[in-house]
Amino acid sequence: MTDATPAPQTAAPPKPASAAREIWQQFRTHKGALFGLIVLSCLILFVLVGPLLWDPPQRLSDTIRMKNQGPSLKAPFGTDQLGRDMLLRMMQAGRVSLAVGLVAMTIAIVFGTLIGTLAGYFRRLDGPLMRLTDMFLALPLIPLLLVMVMLFRDRIASLIGPELGAFTLIVFAIGITSWMATARIVRGEVLTLKEREYVLAARSIGSRPNRIIRRHILPNVVSPVMVAATLGVAEAIITESVLSFLGLGFPPDFPTWGRLLYDGLQYMQVYPERVVWPGVAISLTVLSVNYIGDGLRDALDPRIRGR
Amino acid sequence: MKMRAALLGAVAVMGLAPAAFAERGTDGEVKLTFPQAVSIMNPYLTGGTKDIYASSMVLEPLVGLDPQGVMVPKLVTEIPTKENGGISEDMTSITWKLIPDLKWSDGTPVTADDAVFTWQYCTHPEGGCSQATKFEGIASVEAVDPQTIKVTFNGPKANPYTAFVSALSPVLQKKQFEACLGAAAPTCTDANNMPIGTGPFKVTGFTVNDTVSMAMNENYRDPAKPAFASAVIKGGGDAEGSARAVMETGEFDYAWNTQIPPDTQASMLAAGKGQFVVAFGTLVERIEMNMTDPSAELPEGERATAKHPHPILSDIKVRTALSMAIDRSVLVEVGYGAGGKPTCNVIPAPDDWASDNTACLTQDMEGAKKLLDEAGWTDSDGDGIRDKDGKKLHLLYQSTVNPIRQDFQALVKDWWTELGVEVELKAIDPGVFFGGDPGSPDTFQKFYADVEMYANNSDSPDPEVYLGQYQCKNAPSPETQWQGENINRFCNPDYDKLYAELGGVTDVAKRQEIAKKLNDMVTKDSMVVVPLVHRGTLSAHSNSLGGVQINAWDSEMWNVADWFRVK
To answer: pTM of the prediction?
Structure first.
């Protein structure tokens, strides 16, 4: 037999662990973060899949007779003052609140990181961009939001409909007013990083700034950004409820966790569960996101990883 | 801590009061709480009900109104009428006779000069008096002698009982306010905060936007009253907190304006410490239909003006159908409980003035659907929303941010959706909605929506002024800086004509008949105003406080001199 079959490779060298895998390994060791991830996933599953499985009567003329009921098999979370099923309302509200939190946070992070990196890396941009940041920091947030909502709500609503319009406007408004902290943090980090030897080395071989930023600087500012991002989610959910409270958020028949909390407030003594459900949901989200952020920071930091 | 300090202070004041009076001042202190704090004690310089009510314990008009809207003499010997010669034959003047030996709380005599001065004070061109309407049409107020006040009108006056009637226009002391005429009025802080009056109490301490402390007036005309030696009004907090302080913890004896949901009312009643009382005035929660086109596509300045009639709501069949689809008793049950009743009238009270219009009280969904079919609105593309000539039946329904109003919006939206109407809801901050800023697109006067919901009422039992708002000329428009009370831009020459007639009629029965007709013209005949709920003002008093007679036509404290401690 001349053409022998190649011998099966029995002693292949161990595959080098990928970065993602290594991060996951480290993340798993953080118990709180793992718990947060599970809770958040459950919440997301609850609001996304829940309404498909749970379908109580929704016409008010049918439900009005069952108003103000406590938790039961028919309505696990009870019903509100118009007989609407609280479980369903919690799911619908959660979709909006979570979406607002995540999208607004993304906008704030992208914008903040962009401004921070540019200001930190390019000397000439530093002054103007940081003064811009100062200016935004000095703006009182709520009045600014009120003016924005008042000026643009009708215009946006006529373009893409009242609900989507409100969503876009709120998410944008919150995002645009909460990037400053991130920008400050990122700029500080970039200022120190760009004097490091490996960055100098990259520059000396003629790498272009945009490559240096992407390859060498951005991966190193991920951890502070992550922390800022997690805090941002919580803040966005709460800012949204403030806006709803002032009547400038979503249309009044559009439930969000913040609005359910506000609506339940006047019934707090008689039906405490009305404020407990949305309160617990908001707290769980904020807490789990914070833990995830904590775990991610540890996992992404090469100095902590492996220890 | 603050409240406790205030209460302790009030108790200290009480201790200082001489104990020489046997019947007067034997019942200790009466404690009141207002959800909105009192900011001034002069009703001529404020629009706030809280301030007017608080000052009514100190300052008094010549006559007050009782819970039925009937006049009761306070500082005068009798009510002037044509029969007793108090009103001149030609209805151009009215003469009041003061009670003899009447004294201010500082011991000086009350004379006709004080009333004359009060008229000058409120009608001073630089004064900005809040109750100026009370003195409208008055040519002069003279002191015939120290006991006699003669009010002369510009012409025959059908309703001469405006000036010096009810807590809105009490008599001020000339000596105290002499230096406060015109532009100087708001600068007289001492006089405005601690006015000298003829009422059962006098102010002893006033913290602006917090607490008013009062002691009994030793010079009050009835030597046996008031039963309480002192009174304190604590302001601030919210309706629920105030109600709880009376109904559950018993910290206070009386809480004004405790508008809380029916379930909470029931649970507080169960504590057994107090009770709720409701004053049914003329406050009506209503849906107003916009007769003009609020479309954003119209240029600013033409939007929501009489130039463009509303494309959908101009049709009376549509308006009627929208009203028929509403079940008003469900709204009352959800929103107000004992504090409201269903109504179809803009003028729901007093009984003699209210029309017998009750057709809207039963919901008729099928009839409403039929009406819309007749009007040409049919669901031609099967998406559940009616349309006509390619235009969807879509309505923007706005109101203020208020939990009860949001519940109403949800319910009405549900009924209208069943009807095949697509409803978009909007809730606006009440400060903006009622703010009247011509620059804001969200005021109720601008009405950049198809329908809007709020409550409004008539200040006096005689609704002449109130009905005047639906005249064509009162429509808000860019020319009037968006001011005006005819929110719907309702315009009916017959209405204007009948209203003009009302001004000349003096016979009360005839006036009532015309008022009912006017009421019907804006409600059941045209469905421009869709009344929903006749709302009362809900207040709470503890079971240990006696003599309370809630009153919608005057101050709720109109008979505070008769209040006593139940033992």
So the answer is: 0.75
